[in-house]
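Final report, results section. Input specification for complex C-07:
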Amino acid sequence: MPIEIARADHLEVRYRDRVVWSDANFRIHRGEFVAVIGPNGAGKTTLFRLLLGLIRPSGGTLRVFDEPPRRGNSRIGYVPQSHVVDKDTNVQADQLVRLGFSGNRWIPNLTPAMFRREREAAETALRSVGAIELGKKSLGAMSGGELQRIFLAEALAGNPEILLLDEPLASLDIRRAKELVEQVHDLVRTRKVATLLVAHDINPLIHCLDKVIYIANGRVATGLPSEVLTTDSLTALYGVDVEVLHDSRGNLVIVGGEDSHRDPDS
Amino acid sequence: MTNIGWNWWGWNIILDLREMLQLEFVRNAFEAGTIIAILAGIVSYLVVLRRSSFAAHALGHVGFSGAAGAVLFGVAPIYGLLLFTTVSGSGIALLGQKASHRDVEIGTVLAFMLGLGLLFLAFYNGFATEAYSILFGEIVGISNAQVLFTLETSLPVFLVLGLVYRQLLFASLDEEVAEAKGMHTLVLGLIFMLALAVAISIAVTIIGVLLIFALTVTPAAIAIRLAKRPLYAMLIAVAVALFATWAGIFIAFYEVEPTSFFIVTIVFIIYVVVRSLPYLVRLKLWFARLLSRSSTRPGRSSTHPLPEPPRPDAPEPAAGSELM
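Structure output:
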C-alpha cells in the first residue's frame, strides 16, 4: 500500500459565506501525478490554499501528512498562478532558486559551508528540471517556458514531498506545455513527489496522470481519468447534459459543461 | 558651502582632505554622510526591488510637514521627521503591496501634507531659512550630538535588516511563495517601511526632502544595471551613495554652491553613464563597422546610407512573449 500524503473527507469550503464546493473526498499517495481540472472560478486554487493552510475548511476534514494543514509546511512546494516577473527585474535565476532552499531562514549566510550547501541545493534543483544553463540568466529576460522551469526549481529546492502547480501551462504554447508536462512527470517518477497540477485542458496531461480531481458546479469528482472523464460522471457532476468525445489519438473534448458552472468569484 | 580662504582644490587630494578634516564641522559632515550613505544604499536596493520608489518619494514629503511641525514646537526637525515618516510608512505597509500602486490617493494625501508643513512654517519666524534647509538639506551645521544620534538611530536598523535580509529579499522577489512558506509578509513589509522611514529621516539632514530620491532610489537603479546578484547590487548601491556623498562634501568645501546639488549631480551623472552603457557598446560596434566599410570600399559610404544603429532595448525577449 503506497504512503498516503493527503486525504479529504466530506471537505467543504466557503468564500465569504458562500459554498465554493462541498463533499470532496480524495486520497493522494506518494509519487502520484494528479490533475486538478475544472472551469474558471470553480475553486481549483481554493483547493491549493486549503492544502497550504492559508484558508480553513468550513466543513469535513482535510489531513496533510496525517495532520491538519498548516502554513509554512516545508514539505510542500508551491508554484502560484500567473506568476510573472517584471521585465526589469535584473536578478539572476539561481538566486531565486537559492531562496527557495533557504529563503525562510533568519540571518544571512555567514560561513562558506552555508553558501556551499545553498549553491548545491540550487544546482541540484535546476539540473532536475533541465535548466542548469539558465542559472545565470536574468529573471526579467526569460521567456514564459523558462520562467516556469525556474519556478519549478525554486519549489523543488526545498525538497518537498508534495508539489502544487497552479496553471503552469497557462501561458505556454502546446509544444512548451508538453515539454513541461514531461519534465514534471519525470520528477514525479524519479523523486516520488506527489504532484497536483491545476489545468484548464486535460489533453497535454492525459497520458501520464494517475488521478483526476474534477471541480465544477460546486462539486468535486475524483478518481482515475478513465472513471471521471466520462459522459455519465461529468453529466452527474455538472447537473446538465455533458458529453465527452474522444479523437483517434486519445485526446478528449468535453461539450456542454462550460456554460453551466456558477462563478464563485463574481 | 561657506568659502573660507581656499578657492579651488589642489591636485593633492590627500593634503586637501587633511586640511579639511582639521575642521570639526567637516569631520561631522563626513561622519554623518557616511552613515547615511551606507543605510540609504542598502535600503535603496530594497526600494527598487519592491518597486516602492513612489513610497520613498511620499515619505520624504510627509517628512517635510513633520520637520516643519517640530520646528514650530521648538524641537529638532529630526524628531518630527522620524515621527511622521514612521507613522505614515507603517500606514502604507499595513495597506499592503497594492497601496504602492495607489498613486492618486497617496498623491492627494501628499499635497495636503506639504500644505500642512507650509502652514507650520508660516507660523514660525525663521520661515525661509528653515524651509530651505528641510527642502534641500544643510550639512554644514551638523553637531557632534547629531552625528551620534544618526549612528544611534541607524544601528538598530542595520541590525534588524541583517536579521531579516533573506526573508525580506524572498518576500520582495516572490511574495506569494514566501507567504505560502509561512513568512509574515506583512510584518516584513512593515520592517522594510520602517527602515525606509529612518533612512529618509536621517538623509534629509544632508540632502533635503526634495532631493531624497538621489540617495534612496537612484543608487540601486544604477546598481541593478551592473549586478544580477542581490548582494553585489547592494554593495554597488552603497558604493555609489558613499562616493557621491563624500565627493559632494569635498567639492562643496571649495565651492559656494550647496552640497546637495553636488551629491545629486554626481549620482545623476553616474546614472546617465550606466544607462547609456548598452547604447555606447552598440555605437562602438556600429562605428567599427562604419570604419571597416569605408576602408575596404571607399566609394560606397558616400552613396549608400549606413544602416541604422540598432536599438539595445528592442530585441530582448519579454516574459510571456511566447503566449499562444
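The first strand of chain A starts at residue 4 and ends at 15. The CA atoms of residues 98 and 187 of chain A lie 19 Å apart. This concludes the modelling results for the funded period.
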